[in-house]
Every structure is written in C-alpha cells, then in structure tokens.
Amino acid sequence: MTMNFGVFAFTVAASLTGGSGCGGTPVGSGASPDASSVCTGGNSVSAGVLATGQHMPSGLAVDCANVYWINMGTPPPPTGEKPAGPYTDGQVMKCAIAGCDNHPTALASGRQQGLTHGTPLPIALDATSVYWNDTTPLSSDPAGSAHLFKCSLGGCNNAPEMLAPGFAYALSVDGSSAYWTTYDTSQIATCPIGGCASPTASTSPALPPTGIAVDAASIYWAVELGGLMKCAIHECSRSVTTLVTGLRVGPPITDPSGMTYSGAVSLLRQIALDDANVYIVDSYGSGLGRILKCAKNGCNNSPTTLASGLSGAVGIAVDADNVYWTEAGDNIVAGQMVAGTGRVAKCAIGGCNDSPTVIAANQAGPTGIAVDAMHVYWATYGGSATDGKITVAAK
Fold first, then answer.
1. Distance separating alpha carbons of residues 85 and 97, to the nearest angstrom
2. Are 343 and 328 in contact (CB under 8 A)?
3. In a domain? residue 207
4. For residue 76, what pLDDT band results from cuts at 50, 70 and 90?
5. Burial of 189 (0-12, 13-18, 19+ CB in 10 A)
6. What is the rounded CA–CA span in Å between residue 331 and residue 339?
7. Number of structural domains the chain divides into
8. Domain span at residue 181?
9. Residue 127's domain is classified under what CATH number?
10. What pLDDT, in 10s, does the model give residues 80-107?
C-alpha cells in the first residue's frame, strides 16, 4: 500500500471548550461510544493541529485527557507496482487534548506493520491501557507474525506487553476482554485483557469480517461484501444473528464479457455503536460510498442511508447527536494525482437529508477519527511519509 496525498489545509476558530475529569472509556478502532458520559468540564483547547511531522498516522482513539494514535512509519520500498516488506519504525503516540507543543509522547517505538490494512490501524483504549496490533518480531516467533500489544496509558518504557498472538483487522475492548476480527482467517477472536497464549475463536464467519464493536451484551461486526452480524458476547459460538446481508450499491454493471450484474457489492468496513444503532462505513470509491445505520435489533435488511455519494470513506465515530467520518476522496482523476481531496464530515444520527456537514475540507488522506464531548479529532497521512498530522476541531 502506498499513499500519495497533497497539501493539507485547515481553518477553524481560535479556541474550543474541552473536557476534563478523566476516567477513560472502553473504545476501539473508530467504534467509540459517546465519550461525553465520562469526559465533562470546560478546559480550553486550542483548535487546529496538535501534532505535525508524523510518519503516516493511522488509527486514532481519545479519552478525556489524551489523543492516542499509531504511526505506520517508513513505507517499504516498491518492487514493481507493489511495495515489498513491512512498514518499519512505527510508533504508538499520545498527545494531551489541550496540546503538547507539537511534542507528542512515544509510548512504543520501532514498531512494524504489515501491508494488508485497508482501514485505520486497530487501536483501542480502556481505563488503564492502550491496545493495538502490529507485526514487530518477538524472539519466540518468526518475523511477520502479528500480535496484540498493550501499554499503560502513562507509559511502559517502550516495552509493551504482548497480549495475544494474531492479526487484527479491527479491534475493540470492553474493560475485561479484547475482541478483534481476523480478516485473513475469517474469525471473531477474543482474549482477556490480562493476556492469553491462544485467543478464543468466538465464531468463524463464512466471509471475511472487517469492523468490530462491542457493547455490554453483544459483539457486532461487518462483513466486507455487504453484511452486518451480531452475537451475544458469551454465546457467539452457538448463535449468530444476521442484521444485514447481500447489500449492493450502484446501477447494474456489465463486464467486458457481456455479463450483467445487479450492482457492485458494498465494501463495509469500520463500524461504530450508540445505545440503539450500528453505524457502518461503506468504503466504495467513485461516489458509491455511504454511511449506513441499522438498529441493533435489526433493520429488515434495509439499513438507513445517512450519507451517499462518498468516495473512499475510512474512519467512523459517533456521539449522542451525530455520526462523523473521514473520507479520502478520489485522489486519482483521469490518471492524474489530485491533492487534498479528502474531508471530515458529520450527519445527524436521525438523518441529514443526505446533506452532511463538512467539518474540514481539502484534507490530505484523512484516516482515523474519534470524538469526545466537545471535539472531533482525526489523523491525516499527508503528502509524504513524514508530514502526517493530528487535528482537532469543534464538533
């Protein structure tokens, strides 16, 4: 995977009102609940860029004190048309939401990431730790093996604890366990946050799962090719409920052989939850992407389209009023690179007449996104491997 985005531009008011009174809330990979329940208060937070010069920032999460993100690091050298090898020199970072003078803290450095991510890198928080997945070699494992790691929110002396073996496409935690999707082996995996030698395969979907989120009762996950599933946390191996299946988008398509299809399948990836609904990113490009909503107890296989006409929607977050997302945009038009085609947008959870509000336009590869009581935070890759940014704006 290589990225080449253009110039970053951002304009917003000079100051915001932010959160204090920190407690931490279980969140994950864009699947964060409404943080306003634990983050309240009135500290002044400067609007704009919290950190620059980041090495391809991707997954992002927030509590009421800090923003946390993963820097993918140095891209591998290309071999022909494809990169060869992993991303190296990655980092897990944090910066106070009130600002860190553009000197974020590295909780873990020298990390290695694989090449198969088509979504923000998995990162999750609970009240004490930050969790993520990478392929940094361990002495007991061959190079290329992936593991889940955790580090105390206050730091771990660059020695994160290995939680479990396995590759996580998306990740969520609930205070007692970690839950993740394994796109390559098509499983929903779980492990206590204290660690496990072998994660439990709660269920093995027939099609690769992508985004995942949990609430007090259930695990929810997206199936990239048009599905949304759920199961009770402790009964996943016995019964799985299909909320959405066979979702397609766009007009009929005729391939070069003359075969006509009913429409392109959806590319469902990250999901987010509130008390009543599941919100889903359809990452299709070329104006076929969408933000969808389905009730947790089912939507008769007809999710509500909150926003359509999107191009490369990436990350998603939700609060009590709105759903927020990042959108990469179509950065190649007629074979030419187009700079700054990304944006950050929102839509009321009750609907916005398919006319979302743009929070920030002209973004250079926006990826991970998170919200707290008053703000929205997002990461942008930037135009090169060393000019990524972490930005904050009023909701």
1. 34
2. no
3. yes
4. confident
5. buried
6. 6
7. 1
8. 15-256+369-394
9. 2.120.10
10. 666 667 899 999 999 999 999 999 999 9
